[in-house]
Each structure stands twice: as structure tokens, then as C-alpha cells.
Design brief:
Length: 1425
């Protein structure tokens, strides 16, 4: 059964006061009370009649007379307030009839259980002593609560030992639950009920003997309150006398009328209130004692014994009547003398008799004898109606209705008394069947169902009738609320009184869910009818003399009825009024509590907190509220109020109390759902009303004081006033709706309250931050260039592939280590701190004090370091955080864990994109239900909420190397062109991780222009070759010793030497060192690895040294003189045309003398000193060059190209292309055989090489240098001396000319030879006119046999000179057929090789060639004499 004090059948319940006795804890007391509450319904058939001996009077309320009935108990733990007790006996159910003291049997063995044991409690054991002490306290309870009919002590969890400790009368022992039977508690309640029914007989007879019973509205409420005292006098000094208690009893002993509240003050848990002085002489008897059949027994009370008592108000329990009410008492006195039937005295007598019958009927109702109750109440109602006693008439009808409802709930058949029927139905014996009647429903229930709305209206009308006697607003309002609940139960059951409706009326069972706003017009009674009746209970004016507690109770009851009916807005309106009443009452109570505590009311929350109590009392002292009272009721009540008005709370789907118990869910999905729920709430209701409601809730919480409420509703006010916008680039208006001063006040209030609860040890009470978009962005701060871990694929590791066999790679092979490190790469190093940039948003006009902020990550272990920050008003601000990854792996930064001052430390997701609340286009539900309906799936507008996460990779611990020193001062160097200098760099490993892999890469200022030139498509192959040669052969920086160790131990050092070359255009250079710790041999590396870089920047100044000014080639006819060979250090050549002379002009551009050394491939060298600024010419023999294929394609030194040769893309003729190629190859051969160096003769000593690659060969120089493919040697010999050649012959002498043709190529040549004699020193036309001067035997032109590669053949012809003189013999060889690979197949364009095809197109088709003798043979002819 429900503990609702406004239950519809509340007048039928017997109120029993539960009090703790002896040493007992609050939790134990609550558990024992729950065991009793489980048996609050006691069937009369289970109750035995009072079996106590020596009883003289029969029982009026014997359970045997009506076994189908039941007694319903209302177990309370507080004394009802005086405003309720003053209504007895009109509302007899308001006064407790039994006092049940609860003791803890497990504490009986404690020596310090009770101090009374030292006075009168004597016994052999502590248990017996304590039991006797409990009995003494029971006697004191009888003195303190004299108006209670019975007093019982229940010792829970106690089993009598074997030696049988006697249990005194009035006490009962209850074993623990595990040793109890199913009927143990029922038996206890039946025994209590048996005694109570027996004692009710005396009370009933006393009411029967009364001649007059006063109505509750016969005098003022002030008099009722001042003359009513049911229990111990709270103002009596003796009330502070505490026994067996170490706690002081509060002055405000009596609690509010909350039926669910359990008084948990320290004194009340240990002993009942102290007794009052004096005795009570009221018209309502005190604790009636059962007379015993002995000499000391007294006769039962009669009507004469109460004649004097009838002059007093029945409700007044005061010992001494107040003088102020003497006149009223005299007026109320009824004379026993009458003036005949119908006289005034007769009317008073009949009215008193009728009222007495109604009170007796009320007692029968409470005793469970519903049939006898109906009889008594029908007689009383008839009498009251006939005497126009409308108040008691209405009371009788109300109690009759209670009987009918209980009979229907029990399934018993009943007949509706005639007095309950309307006037037009009283004379009709046959009542018509209602329309649409349910034939399965019993007939008597159908009649009651149809009669009920009209009967309730009639009862309320009788209560509300204006006359000399008026019902106070409290009972009237409570009756209206109870009637509204009866009608609501019928409405919920579709207008029928079925078993479900009876369970709701009697047991207080609620609906599974509240009704919606859909109309229910065909159901009787309608919701509008219930609403009209209900609001008659609304306390609209302050002149109704209601206490604050009663006003709160009425408003709470109205709100409890409106909620299930679906009137949420009306419920919110009533709740808002309730909060206003509560605030006033709480402030008043707080003021009184502050005065009692000896502090000023303006001292704030601290003075009224539990921390200020030396005894450690719990709860809010001003109201005597325990923490559980605030947690279980007030918070849910205020949350319901806020929800009704659409306040933007933290999480509408999950109550905060549940979250605190189960843990808060701050995952991405939960945060998104929370934001969307808050978005829907923002568009519901009126913003100004929401703000006012929250201000009222804050005032209410401060008045309690309720710290949790102050924190919660202050944060809710900030959240509701906020815009809920995540501003983007458009700079949307995100300012809150309240003024800046109020924002500052709210934030200060949260901060102050948070500091207070920390000092009180309640650190779990915190506020919820009011902006879900606090974190807008998280970025990884770029590391310094020396700390960035750079990822590399395994394939780029030196030695991993064929093309990369060494650490220092070819400059033309792509070097991935030279690429610029990506500063935005999300890579961390295990064990090293990383910095993050977190962007915080504050859309309010008040500073945000962040006590701690740290990153929230998933993945490997990550130690996030906490930071503090102050965020300025209305801005976004960056906060830098640090963290250390403990091991390698992957990490995902999902948000930040932030503790704002006064708020809960929680995780905030990252929302970088712009977002603002929007309203759904289609609205399918209206009212408060629209907030609870989930959003339409997929209809999330065009602004999805996408939380951001930062993916990071954590590498293995990496070494950290720095450049400790270098031999170059200030990392700068001055160098001459062609000079090479060696310097060293010392590296130090500052980490605990060794270095087992290092790779050196070099960059300088000359590389970029060269790379640009290489990318030029218009460059000729010779130019490209030159650029590539400079890159690969003349690097500005290199390692002179490549085989040095490249490992550095932790904390160790290593020194490396580098060589720098002076080059034109070199202004700066950089040594880049990539290093890491692989841990395994390079060939065993299976996955990507990471390196770090350090750079050594160098500033270079290159000055000119020796420059090549000019070059020339001179032919040599004949042999070079021997002294020249000896000077040059060479040997004299055998052939006269084997060498030519190379003339080199060198200029000294350095301001000191230079010594130049020029050397050829044969070892011949020339050294020459050159003065500063002067040019010197050096001549040195150079061996002539033979090339197998002078027209070969110019190769490329870049191995990354997929072809070996570069074909010119310029539009030049094949002849020009052949000339260029020929010049290229001869130049290369000359450069290969020459070497020029220089050195300074003064200090400092410097040396270097002379750059000769800027020489250019002309066609003349090429003709001098080159050696043809076919060699032609001409000699003259006498036939008899063929082994030796002659140069002098005689006129008419027969001689022969030998022409030797040599094929120097590797391919055969098919040719013919021509001999060309001529006269020397003559003009051309005369020189060739030799027909009469020179004759030959045969033809001068002859076809030679095919000459294989490297072979020679001779052409011999006999000649005779006919005159003296000098003849010049020359010869030429002409190719008669182009031979390919030794075959006679003519050269055709091949189609199989595209590269060869392009080459042939560049140099043209091969043609027949012709060679001429380089040196003529001079023949001198003399006369024979």
C-alpha cells in the first residue's frame, strides 16, 4: 500500500506511530519499519479476540463479529502537526491510536545499551538488564503519549536464550528474518490489532456517552493550534531530558506532514521524546486503561463521567484550559434540561447523538467492521441531514463511500445506503440500468460507478456550504484531492470501477505511463470534470490560515493528480507556486535555525551546514533535513518542474541521480545525444519563463540549503541562457540571454558552493559544465626539426636494394632522406614529451577558470600532464598541453578531460566544425511530450555533429644527437676554386638509446641551379652530361673516409671528417645527418622505420684561383726534338705524327704567386710559376686520339633514366649533330689525359686543381687531334731494296711507290685507293700537270680487297721520274660500300629498336667515307750523273 497521506481511503486507515527505543541505528530502524510495513493490511479473520482475563466490558469492535473485514495501518515515524491533530474527532484518522517502539535486539548485549540499567534495571546479565530498562522506557512512553490507545515495544532480531530471559508485558521479541516464519510479522501485527480493537471499545463508549462533539470550524485555527498537544510538549524544558542517548534533541521535534519522511535526528533514533509535566483532561479521553476485576478496579466510564468534559473542545488535549477561551467554552456547554421535542436543547442533543454515531462509524471503519460502520454512518447521516448539520452530513457520506470502496476492493457485495442516493432516486425501488453498462460487472458496482461523480460533488458541496460552522481549508482541500484521485482512477480505467481501479484507490498503484494530450471525451468522468473539482482545493489566498507545511502538502497533492492526467503545464504551474511557498517557508525556517544556532541569518550557507554542529548532526540544521530527504524527493521534484517548463538540463534522457550512481557517460555517442536533446529543449517553451523557474529553484536550494541543487540549477541556468552554438567562420552570435552581471554571480555562486562542499567533505557534489562545445580543436604542435621522427619505407634503407648498396648514395638516385620533413606528421616518440594545442571556446561573458585540463587518449599507455588555464570572456583561446607516450604503437586523441572550477571533471569531445541548434521541419508531437520524443532518424539537417579524433603513431624510443663541435670557426669557410679542405664534426648522443644507423646527405647552393638546368628540355646532350658530371664527380661535400664506424653509444661521442670542394657559385652548404636505432641488422628490418635529422649549415666563400683563359692545339710534323722530351720527362716517340702540341693559357686570379703543374697521361709534366694577375702559356705534347665511334650518342650519368643515352631534342641537321658528338668525345679524351693542379708558394699553403672542363675544341683542333679510322702510309723504294724506303731517286730510274692502307676499326672496310703525284712548290694547275714529268706502270686508282678490322694491305705501283725536281706523293682511300657487321648488306634503317632509330634520325644515314693521307711523301729526283 502506498504511503501517500492523501490516499483516497486515508480516513479508513489506523495511524500508528513508530518510535526508536534504546540503542538503534537509522538504517536498522528503517529496515525494521519496512518489515512492519509489509504487513500493514491485517485481516480480521486472522485476529483473535482479546484474551486478557478480568475484562468486564464486552468488546464493541470484536474481530469475530465481521471476519471479512480488514484493518489498514498507516505507519508513520513522526508526530502529526498540531493543525492535523486539531481536526480530531472530525477526522479521527489523523490521530495516532498506537505507539509502536522499535528496539534492536542485536544491541541488547551492549553494557552501555541504556543508562537506566544503573537505576532500576537489575538483572543477572546485561541482556536482562537492558530488557528491564526497555520496559522502564515503555512506561515512560505511556506517560509521554497518554492519548495513544496501546503502547508496544518490538525487539527485532532477538531470540530468547535457553535460560529464558522473561519478556515483560507490552513487549514482544521478533527473530531475525532468516529464523522467522512466513506468519511471524503477521502474528505480531494481529496481536497489536487485537489489543487495539479491545482498547477501542473504551474509546468508543466514551464517544457514545458524549452529548456534544464540536465541529472543526467552530473556532479559529489559532485556538486549535494553541490548545492541541497530542504528544510531549515540544516547548517543555523536560523535553530535553535525554536518556540512553549521546545526541542532543533538536528543538523542532515535530516533523512535517510528509508520510515518507523518517525522523533521523540523533535524539529521536535513540529514545522517544521526553515526557511533559502535568496530566491531560480533555473531552477526548487520554490513554484509556482497561479495568480489571479486583478491589482496585474502577467501573467503566459512563456518560455522567464525561458531562463535564463535554464543555471542553474534544480536540483539546491541554492539561489546563486557557482563560482566553472561557467564554467559548461556556457557549459550547450543552444543558441537560430540555424544553420539549423540537426545542433548542433537543436539537443540540440530537445533533450530538448524530455526531457521536458518525464518530463511532468512523471507528468501525478503522476497525475493519465495514458493515457496522455503514449502519452507524447511515443513522448519523440521516440525523445530520435532518438537523441541517451539513458538515457532519458530508463527513458521514464520505465515510460511507470509504466503506463502499473497501467492500468493492474486497470483492464483497454491498447495498448503497438510501441516504447516499439523490433525492429523486430515494423513492424509486427499481433503479434503471445505465446505458452502455458492462454486464460482466457486478450490479452493485455499476450503481456505485454511476452514483460516484454526483455523490462526490454533493459531499464537496456540503463541506463548502457557508454557515455558522465551516470546514477549514485543510480538510476540505485534502478531501477534494482524495475525491479527485478516485475520479482519476475511474478515468484511467475507462470510467469503470473494476479491480484495477480499486487497486489504484486503496493501494495507491499508479499508471505505467501518464496520459497523453489526446482527448478522452467519451469517458465519464471526463478530465475536465476532474480538473474542475481538483482546483477547488487550490489555496488561492493567504487568508485561509494554512500553515506552510499544509499549503505545501495541498499543492503537492494537486500536482500529483495533474501529472498522470496529462496536464503537465498545469502541473508545472502548481509546482511553481509550490516552490514559491517552499522558498518562503525555508527562509523562515532557516532564520529560526540560525537564531537557534546563535548565528546571523545572513551568515550564508556555512553557518547552517552540518559542519558547524559539534555533535556531527547530519542534514540541513535549519529544517532538520537529512541528506536522504533532499536526495530522494526534492531533487526529483525540482527536476520535474524544470522539465515541465523545458529547462535545458544536462541530460534529459538520464537523471543526474542515476548518473551519479551508475557513472556518467561522456562518450561521443552520449555527448551527441545529449546535445540533440538539449537542442530540442531549447525550442520548447518560453526562455524568460525558463530563466525565472531556474532562479526560483536556485533560491529554493539556497534556502534549504541544498548544495547539490545550488550547483545543478546554477549550471542549468547558465546552460539555458546560452545559445548552444559552436561558432564558425561566419562569427554567429553566440552570446547568452542573461546579463553579464548575472553570469558572474552564477559562476561565483558555483565556485563558492564548490569550495564549501569540499571543506565539508562532500567532494562528490559538483556542477555540470554548461557548454558541450568547450573543446573546438586539438592539434599536435610540430616538434623541432631535430626531434621530428621521419618515416621511411624499408626499401629506402641502404643495402636493402641493389641500387642502394651503400649509405652515401649516388646524387642521381632519389634520396628520400633529403626530402623536407613533414612538420604536420602525426608521429610521437615513446618516452619523450609531445606538445598539443587545444582550442577552448567560451561563449559567455565571464572568465572560465579551468583547474585542470589533460588529454584523453585511446591506444597505448599515455601519460597526459595536467595544466591550468584562465579563458577570457567570449573568445576562443589556445591552451598548450603535454603528454608522454610510454610505449610504441598507435594513439588516438579523442578529447580532453577538463575540470572547470566548481564543475565535475569530465571528458569533452572535440567538435571543430560550425554547428548551431535547429528546429525540425515536421512536428508530430505537441506539448512536453515533444521533448521526450526521439528525433527523426536521418533528419539531422545539413549540420551533422562529427566529433574529431587525432590519430597518432608512436615510434620506438629514438636517440637524440646534437652537434657538439666543429673544426670550422662559426661554421664558415673560405676556399679557393679547385681547393679541397677537410674539416671534422663531433656528434654527441644525449639520449639513453644508442645510434646504430647514420646516413649523411649533402646539400649546397650549386645543386638547385644544376637541377633546374637538368630539367631544361632545350639543353643539349653535351650540356646535360656536363651538369650531371658536376653533380656526381664534383660534389661540394663528401666523406673522404666512408668506412668509418657510424655507431654512437648512449651519452657517447663520434667525430666524422668531411671534405669540401671550392666550386664557383658555392655560397652555402648543409650536412644532413639521418640517424636512428634499428636494433637489428639492416637486412632483417621488416617494416618501416623512423629517423631523425640534424643539420650542420655551412657558410662558404669561394675565391678564384687559377683560371683557364685559352687553349689551342698545334700539329707536329716530324719528330719532336729530344731535348724537349728530356725536359718534359718523357720518351721520344717512334712515329712522327703520334703527338700534337697543346697550348694552355692560365691566369692567376689569387693575390699571391701560384705554381701550376700540368701533366699528361704519359707522365710528362710542366710546372710554371704565375704572378698574381698575370697569364702564362704552357705547352705540352698530347698524344693524338683515335676513337672507334666518334659519333656515338652522348651518355647520361643519371642511372634513374630508363635509357642509356640522351638524344638531342633540338632541331639541328645531322651534320651538325655529328660534329657536336665528335667534338664531345674528342674533348673528353683530351680532358682524360690532362691533369692541372696549382699551389700557393706563400703561407698559408693551399693547393687545388685547375678546372679544365671549360675548354672548347674547334673543327681545326679536332682534325689535329684525331687519328682517322683508316691509316695511309706512302713510301718509295727500289725494287731491289724493298725493305727500306728512299726519299731520293734519279731521273729515269725505275722505282716503286708503296701505299699501305691500315683499317683501324673493328669492322671490315671495302675501299679503293688513289695515288696522287704532284709537283712541289707549284701552283695547282702546274703541279698536277705531270704527264711529261712523271710516269707510272698501271693505274693510279685501284680497288683494294675487303680489309678486315685491324688488317693492312699494300698497293705497289712502279713509277719513273722523267725530270729532276721534288715530287709530292699523296693518296686517298674511298669506301666503295658501307659494310654493317662485316656483311655486304647495305645500311638500312632498323625498325626493331626505337632508341637506335632515334639516333639514326639524329645523325642521318651512314654514307661512304673517304680518307686522305695526313702527310705526303716527298720524293727528290736528281740527275744520275
Amino acid at each position: 500500500m502506498s504511503l501517500d497521506p492523501l490516499l483516497p481511503i486515508a480516513p479508513a486507515r489506523v495511524k500508528a506511530l513508530l518510535l526508536p527505543l534504546g540503542k538503534i541505528k537509522a538504517a536498522r530502524f528503517a529496515s525494521f519499519a519496512e518489515r512492519l510495513q509489509a504487513e500493514h493490511v491485517v485481516q480480521l479473520r486472522d485476529i483473535s479476540a482479546d484474551g486478557r482475563p478480568n475484562r468486564t466490558s464486552p468488546d464493541m469492535f470484536s474481530p469475530l463479529a465481521y471476519p471479512d473485514g480488514a484493518m489498514l495501518y498507516d505507519l508513520i515515524a513522526h508526530v502529526p502537526p498540531p493543525s492535523h491533530l486539531a481536526l480530531s474527532p472530525f477526522d479521527l484518522f489523523r490521530e495516532p491510536m498506537a505507539v509502536i517502539a522499535i528496539a534492536d535486539g542485536t544491541e541488547l548485549g551492549d553494557v552501555t545499551y541504556s543508562k537506566r540499567a544503573s537505576m532500576n534495571g537489575k538483572g543477572p546479565t546485561p541482556v536482562e538488564k537492558n530488557i528491564r530498562a526497555l520496559y522502564q522506557e515503555l512506561e515512560e512512553l505511556r506517560d509521554n503519549y497518554p492519548k495513544a490507545l496501546i503502547h508496544r515495544v518490538l525487539i527485532f532480531d532477538y531470540v530468547s536464550p535457553s535460560h529464558e530471559v522473561p519478556i515483560p508485558e507490552g513487549m514482544a521479541a521478533i527473530p531475525p528474518p532468516e529464523e522467522s516464519k512466513r506468519t511471524t510479522m503477521k502474528t505480531v501485527m494481529c496481536d497489536i490489532s487485537s489489543l487495539l480493537l479491545a482498547e477501542m471499545t473504551t474509546l468508543g463508549k466514551s464517544y457514545e456517552a458524549m452529548t456534544a462533539i464540536e465541529s472543526p470550524g467552530g473556532y479559529s485555527l489559532a485556538r486549535q493550534l494553541s490548545t492541541t498537544s497530542w504528544g510531549p510538549d515540544a516547548t517543555s524544558p523536560t523535553s530535553f531530558t535525554r536518556r540512553n542517548s549521546q545526541f542532543a534533541i533538536p528543538q523542532h521535534l515535530q516533523r512535517s506532514s510528509s508520510a515518507t519522511g523518517l525522523d533521523r535526528s540523533g535524539g529521536r533514533l535513540s529514545l522517544p521524546p521526553a515526557p511533559t509535566g502535568g496530566s491531560s483532561s480533555v473531552s477526548t479521553p487520554g490513554r484509556p486503561s482497561t479495568p480489571l476485576k479486583s478491589n482496585l478496579s474502577s467501573p467503566p466510564l459512563s456518560a455522567d463521567d464525561f458531562s463535564s468534559a463535554s464543555s471542553q473542545r474534544p480536540e483539546s488535549p491541554e492539561t489546563h484550559p486557557k482563560p482566553d477561551f472561557a467564554e467559548d467554552a461556556s457557549r459550547d456547554r450543552v444543558s441537560v434540561q430540555g424544553f420539549g421535542p423540537g426545542g433548542a436543547n433537543d436539537r443540540w442533543r440530537l445533533k450530538g447523538k448524530g455526531r457521536s454515531a458518525i464518530v463511532i462509524g468512523s471507528m468501525y471503519l478503522q476497525a475493519g467492521r465495514w458493515g457496522d460502520s455503514l449502519k452507524e454512518l447511515s443513522e448519523g447521516a440521516t440525523a445530520a441531514k435532518s438537523l441541517n448539520d451539513h458538515i457532519w452530513h458530508g463527513k458521514a457520506l464520505e465515510l460511507i463511500l470509504m466503506n463502499l470502496l473497501l467492500l468493492g476492493w474486497s470483492g464483497l457485495t454491498f447495498q448503497i445506503p438510501t441516504v447516499c442516493l439523490p433525492t429523486q432516486d430515494k423513492h424509486s425501488s427499481l433503479k434503471p440500468e445505465p446505458e452502455n453498462a458492462d454486464q460482466d460487472q457486478p450490479r452493485h458496482l455499476r450503481y456505485l460507478q454511476n452514483l460516484l461523480p454526483e455523490l462526490l460533488e454533493r459531499i464537496v458541496g456540503l463541506y463548502s456550504r457557508i454557515s455558522a460552522e465551516n470546514v477549514p481549508h485543510l480538510p476540505l482541500a485534502e478531501t477534494v484531492i482524495r475525491f479527485s484521485k478516485i475520479l482519476s482512477a475511474m478515468h484511467f480505467c475507462d470510467g469503470k470501477l473494476n479491480q484495477k481501479a480499486f487497486d489504484m484507490i486503496v493501494n495507491g498503484k499508479g499508471l505505467d505511463k501518464d496520459l497523453t494530450t489526446s482527448p478522452r471525451l467519451l469517458i465519464t468522468p471526463s478530465r475536465q470534470h476532474i480538473l474542475t473539482l481538483l482546483f477547488k482545493a487550490f489555496p488561492s489566498t493567504a487568508t485561509e490560515m494554512l500553515t506552510t507545511v499544509d499549503r505545501i502538502s495541498i499543492l503537492s497533492g494537486i500536482a500529483a493528480v495533474l501529472g498522470p492526467l496529462g496536464y503537465h503545464r498545469k502541473k508545472a504551474m502548481v509546482t511553481r507556486e509550490l516552490v514559491s511557498v517552499l522558498i518562503g517557508g525555508l527562509v523562515e525556517a532557516r532564520t529560526r535555525g540560525a537564531a537557534d544556532a546563535g548565528v546571523h541569518p545572513a551568515a550564508g550557507l556555512v553557518a547552517l551546514t552540518p559542519g558547524g554542529n559539534a555533535q556531527g548532526a547530519t542534514g540541513a540544521m535549519a529544517l532538520d533535513l537529512a541528506e536522504g530527504d533532499i536526495e530522494q524527493g526534492i531533487e526529483a521534484f525540482l527536476e520535474l518542474l524544470c522539465k515541465s517548463y523545458g529547462v535545458v538540463g544536462f541530460d534529459r534522457a538520464k537523471p543526474r541521480r542515476q548518473s551519479m550512481r551508475e557513472g556518467f557517460d561522456d562518450s561521443d555517442d552520449a555527448v551527441i545525444a545529449r546535445i540533440r536533446g538539449q537542442m530540442k529543449t531549447r525550442f520548447f517553451g518560453f526562455p524568460d519563463i525558463k530563466l525565472n523557474i531556474l532562479r526560483a529553484c536556485i533560491n529554493f536550494s539556497e534556502a534549504l540549503p541544498d548544495f547539490n541543487g545550488v550547483l545543478k540549477f546554477s549550471s542549468d541556468l547558465m546552460r539555458t541562457a546560452g545559445s548552444g552554438v559552436a561558432p564558425g567562420p561566419r562569427r554567429e552570435d553566440a552570446s547568452p540571454k542573461i546579463h553579464r552581471d548575472e553570469q558572474i554571480r552564477l559562476v561565483s555562486n558555483i565556485s563558492r558552493t564548490s569550495n564549501l562542499v569540499k571543506r565539508l567533505g562532500m567532494s562528490h557534489l559538483t556542477a555540470e559544465f554548461w557548454d558541450e562545445f568547450l573543446v573546438r580543436e586539438i592539434k599536435l604542435e610540430p616538434l623541432s626539426s631535430t626531434r621530428i621522427p621521419i618515416p621511411h619505407a624499408r626499401s629506402v634503407l641502404p643495402g636493402a636494394t641493389i641500387t642502394r648498396t651503400s649509405q652515401d648514395v649516388n646524387p642521381f638516385i632519389y634520396n628520400p632522406f633529403l626530402k623536407e620533413p613533414d612538420e604536420t606528421a602525426a608521429n610521437l616518440v615513446a618516452g619523450e614529451p609531445a606538445k598539443f594545442r587545444v582550442t577552448i571556446q567560451n561563449t559567455y561573458d565571464v572568465e572560465l577558470d579551468i583547474e585542470s585540463i589533460r588529454l584523453e587518449t585511446d591506444g597505448v599507455d599515455f601519460e597526459a600532464m595536467k595544466e591550468t588555464a584562465i579563458i577570457g570572456p567570449y573568445r576562443t583561446q589556445a591552451v598548450r598541453l603535454q603528454g608522454v607516450a610510454k610505449e610504441s604503437g598507435s594513439i588516438t586523441v579523442t578529447g580532453a578531460i577538463i575540470k572547470v572550477k566548481g564543475c565535475r571533471e569530465r571528458r569533452f569531445a572535440v567538435f571543430p566544425k560550425h554547428w548551431k541548434p535547429y528546429q525540425e521541419d515536421k512536428i508530430k508531437v505537441k506539448g512536453i511530450a515533444s521533448v521526450s520524443v526521439p528525433m527523426m532518424s536521418g533528419k539531422y539537417h545539413d549540420q551533422p555533429l562529427e566529433p574529431f579524433s587525432l590519430e597518432l603513431n608512436v615510434t620506438q624510443p629514438q636517440p637524440l644527437v646534437i652537434v657538439k663541435s666543429t673544426t670550422l670557426p662559426q661554421s664558415s669557410v673560405m676556399i679557393l676554386e679547385g681547393e679541397r679542405q677537410i674539416f671534422s664534426v663531433t656528434l654527441q648522443n644525449q639520449s639513453t638509446t644508442p645510434v646504430d644507423f647514420m646516413l649523411f646527405s649533402f646539400k649546397d647552393s650549386t645543386q638547385e641551379p644544376l637541377q633546374t638546368a637538368l630539367a631544361n628540355r632545350d639543353a643539349t646532350p653535351a650540356e646535360l652530361y656536363e651538369y650531371e658530371l658536376i653533380l656526381i664527380k664534383k660534389q661540394a661535400l663528401r666523406l673522404p673516409h666512408n668506412n668509418s664506424s657510424r655507431n654512437i653509444a648512449p651519452g657517447g661521442e663520434a667525430t666524422f671528417e668531411f671534405e669540401i670542394l671550392g666550386k664557383p657559385g658555392l655560397t652555402h652548404a648543409t650536412i644532413q645527418i639521418d640517424y636512428t636505432y634499428l636494433g637489428v641488422p639492416r637486412e632483417e628490418v621488416k617494416e618501416d622505420f623512423y629517423t631523425r635529422q640534424i643539420s650542420v649549415p655551412l657558410t662558404v666563400t669561394v675565391n678564384a684561383s687559377v683560371e683557364l683563359a685559352r687553349i689551342d692545339v698545334l700539329p707536329m710534323h716530324g719528330l719532336i726534338p729530344q731535348p724537349l722530351w728530356e725536359r718534359l720527362g718523357g720518351t721520344k716517340p717512334i712515329k712522327p705524327d703520334e703527338y700534337c702540341l697543346l697550348s694552355v693559357d692560365l691566369r692567376n686570379a689569387w693575390p699571391s704567386q701560384m705554381a701550376v703543374h700540368l701533366e699528361n697521361e704519359a707522365g710528362m709534366a710542366v710546372e710554371e710559376g704565375i704572378l698574381p694577375g698575370k697569364t702564362s702559356r704552357i705547352i705540352i705534347p698530347v698524344k693524338r686520339v683515335y676513337l672507334e665511334d666518334p659519333h656515338a650518342s652522348i651518355p647520361s650519368l643519371n642511372p634513374s633514366k630508363d635509357k642509356q643515352f640522351v638524344v638531342s631534342t633540338s632541331k639541328i641537321s645531322p651534320e651538325m649533330e655529328r660534329a657536336n658528338r665528335e667534338a664531345f668525345w674528342y674533348r673528353e679524351r683530351i680532358l682524360d689525359c690532362l691533369k692541372a693542379t696549382w699551389r700557393t708558394t706563400a703561407v698559408p699553403k693551399r693547393n687545388g686543381t685547375v678546372e679544365l672542363r671549360n675548354i672548347r675544341l674547334t673543327t681545326r683542333m679536332i682534325d689535329i687531334v684525331k687519328v682517322g679510322e683508316v691509316g695511309i702510309d706512302i713510301s718509295v723504294e727500289r725494287p731491289s731494296e724493298s725493305e727500306s724506303s728512299i726519299s731520293t731517286a734519279y731521273v729515269d730510274e725505275f722505282i716503286q711507290v708503296r701505299v699501305r692502307v691500315t683499317n683501324r676499326t673493328s669492322r671490315p672496310v671495302s675501299s679503293l685507293v688513289r695515288l696522287l703525284p704532284a709537283l712541289c712548290h707549284r701552283s695547282v694547275n702546274i703541279a698536277l700537270d705531270y704527264t711529261r714529268k712523271f710516269v707510272w706502270n698501271g693505274t693510279l686508282q685501284q680497288l683494294l680487297p675487303e680489309l678486315q678490322g685491324g688488317a693492312s694491305t699494300d698497293f705497289v705501283i712502279g713509277v719513273t721520274a722523267l725530270c729532276r725536281g721534288e715530287f709530292e706523293l699523296t693518296a686517298s682511300v674511298e669506301e666503295i660500300q658501307v659494310m654493317e657487321d662485316g656483311s655486304e648488306k647495305p645500311k638500312e634503317r632498323p625498325q626493331s629498336d626505337n632508341t637506335q632509330t632515334r639516333e639514326d634520325a639524329a645523325i642521318g644515314m651512314k654514307e661512304r667515307r673517304m680518307w686522305h693521307s695526313r702527310r705526303p711523301c716527298i720524293l727528290t729526283v736528281k740527275d744520275s750523273d
